[in-house]
Amino acid sequence: MVFFSAQTGGCSASFLLTGAGRVSWAYPPSQVIIYWQWYNYYESQVSADKQILRVNLDETSVCYWQGAQPGILLNRKRHIPGGNPAVTNVSRNTLRATMTHVALICDDSTLQPLLPQVLVAKRHLLTKADEARIRATLPANVFLKANPKGWNNSALTCEILNR
Fold first, then answer.
1. CB–CB of 6/29 below 8 Å?
2. What pLDDT sits at residue 25?
3. DSSP string for residues in 66-117
4. Strand 117-122 and strand 142-147: pairing?
């Protein structure tokens, strides 16, 4: 079984080729066919000493508040007997808040560190101090973008592609 995935013109298409030669489509087959036609055309136009790079831009939602996870420790010696157990007070807005991670991924791993990645955060979730601290810790190819909403949009996508 072989899984193929293609993206073109804002449309994604994927299909699964089974051992019996049957195709199971996850997205519109016409988009996959168009993608591969364009790819084959461009590949035929490239000289033998050059290589075509396949770059994918993808985005994913990341929860702002990760919550209590295994590995978070509590010092029971400091717990006051008869008092409330340790809790984390988090607002409903913080529990529901998300950021977007936008990344460019290339099939040539040597170029991967040069491709930009962007963390898109809601402006009201980050204090100026948090923003400065986060920016100071990011690698050179990772950027933090504070937007009114924590979502990617066409203007931001153009900005990412022009970096």
1. no
2. 52
3. --S-TT----GGGSPTTSPPP-----HHHHH-EEEEEEEEES-TTTGGGS-E
4. parallel
Whether residue 127 sits in one domain with residue 141: yes
First and final CA of the chain: distance in angstroms?
Answer: 38
Residue 89 to residues 57, 83, 142, 160: CA-CA distances in angstroms?
36, 16, 31, 36
pTM of the entire structure?
Answer: 0.65
Is residue 78 in some structural domain?
no
Q: Does residue 74 fall inside a structural domain? A: no
Same domain for 47 and 9, yes or no, is: yes
For residue 125, name the pLDDT band (cuts at 50, 70, 90).
Answer: confident
Burial 39-48 (b: 16+ CB within 10 A, else e): eeeeeeeeee
How many Cβ atoms sit within 10 Å of the Cβ of residue 35?
Answer: 19
